[in-house]
Amino acid sequence: MIVTIDGVAASGKSSVSGGVARALGVPYVSSGLLYRAATLLGLEARLDLHDAPAVLAHLQGHPLRLEPLAGGNRIWQGDRELTGELHSTRVDAGVSVVAALPEVRAWVDAQLRALPAPFVAEGRDMGTAVFPHAGAKFYLTASPRIRAQRRAQERPEDVPAIEAALVRRDELDRVQSAPAPDAVVIDTGPLTLDGVIQTILAQLPAQLTSA
Length: 211
Ligand SMILES: Nc1ncnc2c1ncn2[C@@H]1O[C@H](COP(=O)(O)OP(=O)(O)OP(=O)(O)O)[C@@H](O)[C@H]1O
Ligand SMILES: Nc1ccn([C@H]2C[C@H](O)[C@@H](COP(=O)(O)O)O2)c(=O)n1
Fold this sequence. Notes:
Elements: E1 2-7, H1 13-24, E2 28-30, H2 31-44, H3 52-61, E3 64-67, E4 74-77, E5 80-81, H4 89-99, H5 102-113, E6 119-123, H6 126-130, E7 136-141, H7 144-151, H8 159-172, E8 184-187, H9 193-203, H10 206-209
Parallel strand pairs: 1-6, 1-7, 2-6, 7-8
Antiparallel strand pairs: 3-4, 4-5
Bound molecules: adenosine-5'-triphosphate (ATP) and the ligand Nc1ccn([C@H]2C[C@H](O)[C@@H](COP(=O)(O)O)O2)c(=O)n1.
């Protein structure tokens, strides 16, 4: 069983996926972490992030390992844990460039499809390109201002700066971020985190919640 939760940047995908996964007793899979880790490695190696063959060759030489857990995902390159370094402003600024490379997308998709189900998968194209046959699909939205206000609780930048960066990233990620036609779209703006989780749990087919 696979449940997909896609959505725009900072719409609550990881927090909501974690809550849904815990309620179902399965792990969740954060696909964005693979793009973020690929970006960090590219930046550290001073690669041109537009150079797909260079980025891919570097990834193949420095394999990433995603550890999907219900309590939070961790990601490793060899013995080094990268997780804590992936939500910096520097990685945010470069990740859309790396995520636009078809070669990198194919590499990430192969990593994700190799994971053993059941799980909740979150990202941008989980319900469209990666797991089109998922048992249930959701897509989270919220206005840029609300998303920026939430992010500002965890970042040093102010709300207008965060909002501008989110709008820029939404635009850069637009191609792969369309909701699946069969996804339930949820505006998280008026909802609490738990409200979003309960909304999703209430809409899951009975065979998923009893599995
Ligand atoms: N419905 C909600 N109400 C209030 N706060 C929320 C809600 N959903 C998420 N948040 C908060 O918004 C912030 C962003 O959430 P989260 O990191 O889960 O989003 P994301 O979509 O995974 O982000 P990114 O695209 O950057 O990976 C977090 O601080 C989270 O606690
Ligand atoms: N399935 C995915 C997941 C993520 N991305 C890109 C888009 C984002 O800018 C970046 C980081 O993702 P986030 O942590 O914000 O969810 O990775 C994508 O293109 N496809």
